[in-house]
Design goal:
The structure is a homotetramer. By secondary structure, the first copy, chain A, is an alpha/beta fold. Chain A has eleven helices and 14 strands. Chains in contact: A-B, A-C, A-D, B-C, B-D, C-D. The interface between A and B is large, with 37 and 37 residues.
């Protein structure tokens, strides 16, 4: 079975990752790439300032860039991936949904909307059920699914594993790579020999999205998980890979070994891009792992890596890491697309 | 008044900072530099691979390097600063104390010993009273004073300010500069485009030293503060300046403005190297500060800089920063030396 | 004697360096700061996103930002420093010159114009004589003096020293800091764990400006030096300080010691901001110097540092370094301003 | 056909690359790994501090580390790769050669020995003929083949392409990655926000090895090419990938297009690890390439990438780049091993 897909906003940093990940995908066949008006009509090679360190797939390089409008998308396209800037996405995504498209979007708008599923396929696939609510309320045939922010995705699979012990509080401090801000988001003058202890909006995203992802769906709505989540987000001079320190308070007494086992046993999903082992866990013999440069490519960048689990008063502290532009962005949307196919929404 | 001082372990990274800070010091006159046997008899210029970006003071450059033994120190030296590796310090410092020297040491051995004052002059100068206990127990005429670890010093002045609201829990995540590990401590292959979520021994130091520094001295002993402190320590690719994210639970309800005021009002000391304003506090109009490269030189590297104060459940989170090899190491010992003079121990 | 000065384009990266360097200047008194229309009427503190690691001087912080037009400058201002973007400078600088102002400009426009002096005060102060030519040809009372590009300034003092041996060819390869491109000129995604072997326009500037600076002024015009200069310019992940490898062919046979002596003896100028020793030269005992982080602050960033002099076929190779935003930009214009005062043009 | 191979010095940085490159190799089957005495008897997993970002191949992880002595190598091993430190290699390699082993060595000792072939298979495969000379002179049955230094390999294929126009002079300036110095060779304090304009011994290697590689073999000896080669070698803060600026004087007049064509047409070899296109050449539309992070993985790290070709007086300047630990070290030895098999020496 082949699903024809398109990418809205295909020339940016996340768009380029989509193209890299869709190359040789077993199910998805890329049939349309869109960009802003200035690039429409150019070939993709002309329109994109290609930065990924594998070459542009030849068939994509010659593809003509279409406008980001429903009538520019070939009729036989069934699924759209969106990596539009959130402001643009907020105004444009509804047009596609009204035109009946299924959109798997990485853009941050509407993630917390009550009728929009925010999903990590291995964690809360059942939240896709919100699509029925969404269609009823919005009156469209399409479907909008969001994936969370890159820093949220890195942590939530580990919190889901911890939640079997009753997650009550999570304080998290992040060390985030510059690619998370897009190609021009962080200047070199800002970050060389430096760190920036604030990323606008990021802390709120982690604090709210986590609770939605871990929340229960009762067929009509998602109730937020009642854990308190507080985040401090830092930018550091790394290219890719977000590293996070989590301090978690739990209802039950646990040992570090219990926590490592729970993380190790956290199930993955049976989707083409899901890793066999969702969370790779380093034990005490490797206290210096995970590290961004060494571990971000685990499971081709689709896995989560944890380590440094130690007891603290009322719970545990540990570290986790994921590749922010693969598992944390393009790969997250791709995986939601695979889930949509698997669950029959396409 | 002039106090003649010496430096034990003068050629290393911290030793070089001592020399830089002692140049033109109003009270201290450098009269002796020691190093390991291999360098004894060389001039300081020959023995030190000088890395500080100001030149070697001319009078020091020609000084002959002495052995790290009491009989190598001129008789008129009253105060010794120690930046020996902790293993060496543990075996050598007692010799100097028995010989009657006052030693202000940056080495990590004996910091938690019950009869050794661990002091930050602006925070707990009264702990110097432990010297009497120490002399009685150890039977020596000298006096040993320790300063805390660089990552501890960065945080404790802010915790002291918070403690007026009843500090109960502090979870802290650090982003530490490579200079904290000494000149060869972190290889470039380890840290470029990377971060390391573990620094051996560092977390324990922060967790224990903080509580001693904030503890009460009753004339006989120091009781540890009963706050729970948990630290996750990370190395990042910055040269100087430790940045820390603190999540603090407090007994009282406070606003961010209360906390900023408390930090701003935290008193400094009337010592030559103390900053006029101990803690510089950025408010919400500068959420991206403090940053290592921009703020580590505040008060010539002797100040603390805080910012990003925000409410969280049960307390506040905020960020703090200090120059790890000035305020966090050589400058910390220097300041303890100034306190020893001020309080009449020399 | 006090000269009242203004800064055109005072809020950018070079403008901020001007303000830092003018603080406590013995001769110059800052009386006006201009910026683009959007900032006019704001205080300097409001208008500038201050990035320099010393605080904004208090008297400047409250200064009102003026428009970049002659009628916005107080009448008693005698000298203007320009750090406008070159496109803006090309259209605006003539207005100030026609209004009679003396302008010492760091902007790259008109550097190679036949009647515009391009000067490094220690190297070719006599070229200021072109001001008479300029005034005659342009019919203005003002005077326009340019300083060269940062990468040119780093090398030319060493070439001037070599020229006593008959400079014939110079191939130069640069390792340039990101600050040379302005605050947002190089993104972090471009440069972390990377280098870029091209800087638009930079190679041409080095190749032409060098020959003008080393050329002879006969009272009417400057003839370009006939050395062949070829440059390859690279951006690397350093904040400040341009390092350059020079391969020079010379008419005479020389030893490395001859070249070191010539560089060491290259005279400085008797101006407030000139270093006592213009070129600091490392010999064979320090083959790893100069280095950007260790040597860029030599002579408060106003000196040149050389080293690694070795014979090669037909000449010598060596390395040189200067602080690109001090000696290479704001400091270069400042020094030209000091020369203009010294020589009586103001 | 399968050739059983061993690695001498398998636990270091280059040794780890050998293991990565040998995994799934079509011809070579890894049968022995050696290390220093301290590790003998451990499993490879225990002995190596694995740093490569792909996992240790499972079959290698459990392999027992052997001593670096001929009698520790299984009898059926036909080819040894050596990544021993050059001092160790100088004393140990002869033992293996006398024992009859064929050794393809990355160590720098003996590269310029008159009877040792120094080869890049695509450039001078005929130099292998020196093996007959070597066997006769040394009286051993084994064979020693060396590959050049990483910085030499990066440049020589481009010089070979230029030599059809009569190479007379090459001045080269390098920007070299820290991995070239081994895992602990460059400390982070040395290189963050910095560059080092000297690498001990590296300049001499480039200057001499280049001329041997480009020299003619007449059946008895290799005469050095008579081009003058002068190198300035710099270390910069990149992990992998050496970038080099070359200034070449040529006997013939050429255009940049001629040079690009010559580089593009430089033949590759028909060996398993040779790239299809040996030198990838960027033209004027991409003046900012090659760049280390974007181009070091060209042809899985086995290719050369060039660009920035421009005319200069008497020749051309251009830039070239290769992955220093793949094409420049382990991959270079591997390729020599493949050539030895292809040419029937094994």
């Amino acid at each position: 079975m082949t699903v024809r897909v398109g990418i809205l906003g295909a020339t940016g940093a996340v768009g380029q990752r989509f193209i890299q990940l869709l190359d040789d995908h077993p199910t998805f066949d890329l049939a349309a790439v869109t960009a802003s008006e200035a690039s429409v009509g150019e070939t993709y090679r002309e329109a994109a300032k290609w930065r990924v360190n594998t070459p542009i797939p030849e068939d994509v390089a010659g593809m003509e860039v279409a406008a980001t409008r429903p009538d520019s998308i070939p009729d036989d396209v069934d699924l759209l991936f969106s990596s539009l800037p959130s402001g643009v996405a907020a105004s444009v995504e509804p047009d596609f949904l009204e035109a009946g498209y299924v959109v798997s979007s990485n853009s941050s708008n509407d993630r917390m909307a009550a009728d929009v599923p925010l999903t990590i396929p291995e964690i809360n696939p059942d939240h896709l059920g919100l699509i029925d609510v969404q269609r009823e309320q919005r009156g469209w045939d399409g479907a909008l699914v969001k994936n969370p922010n890159c820093s949220t995705i890195t942590m939530v699979p580990t919190l889901a594993a911890l939640d079997r012990f009753g997650l009550e509080v999570a304080n998290v401090s992040t060390l985030q790579a510059v690619s998370g801000a897009g190609y021009s988001g962080v200047t070199s003058m800002e970050i060389i020999d430096n760190a920036i202890p604030h990323i606008g909006g990021e802390e709120e995203k982690m604090e709210t999205e986590s609770r939605k992802l871990l929340g229960a769906f009762d067929g009509a709505s998602v109730s937020l998980h009642d854990a308190e989540v507080t985040a401090s987000c830092n930018r550091i001079p790394t290219i890719d890979g977000h590293l996070e320190n989590v301090f978690a308070e739990l209802a039950e007494d646990v040992t570090p070994a219990d926590v490592r086992d729970a993380m190790h046993d956290q199930p993955s999903a049976d989707l083409p891009s899901s890793p066999d082992q969702l969370i790779k866990v380093f034990d005490d013999s490797d206290p210096e792992r995970p590290q961004p440069r060494l571990d971000r490519t685990y499971a081709d960048g689709m896995g989560i890596v944890a380590g440094g689990v130690q007891e603290m008063s009322g719970g545990v502290k540990y570290n986790c890491l994921a590749h922010n532009t693969i598992r944390g962005a393009a790969g997250a949307s791709l995986l939601n697309g695979e889930l949509l196919v698997e669950e029959g929404w396409i």
